[in-house]
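[Automated response] Your request has been received and processed.

Submitted sequence:
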Amino acid sequence: MPQQNNILLELHVPEFGKVKDYYGKLGFIPVWEREPEEDKGYLIMKMGNNILCFYCGDEHVYKHTYFGRFPQNTKRGYAVEIIIMVEDIESYYEKVKGFSNVVEELVMRPWGLKDFRVEDPFGFYLRFTSLHDILDDSNAVG
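Generated structure:
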């Protein structure tokens, strides 16, 4: 049986082209896509074990029953941090800082892992961190 993910992150975006360009530069590759057709567009992208789902891909994203209540210029990722684990954080940071809006530089955190944060073209807040087992309580700050 293939590996199952029990939680998925779905980002609502108005344009798949910009998603594929930006996230492609980050190292994500498209797994499958349903072309936008009103509110039925969908895109799955993957990098290692990191999977992101993107919904809509056109102007219908602004008509969503819940999210449509907010102004179109509202930052999409307000109060949400998307965590993406990578193998060689130093090299990855050097690659990403050349084209991305870095909002926090690469640093060693008190819990013993290096990470950095960027904002994507839609306002989502992404944290890139070293590979680790999030279920291991030794990653907790003591």
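Summary generated for your ticket: The helical segments are 16-26, 89-96. The chain has a mean pLDDT of 91.
If you did not submit this request, please reply to this message.
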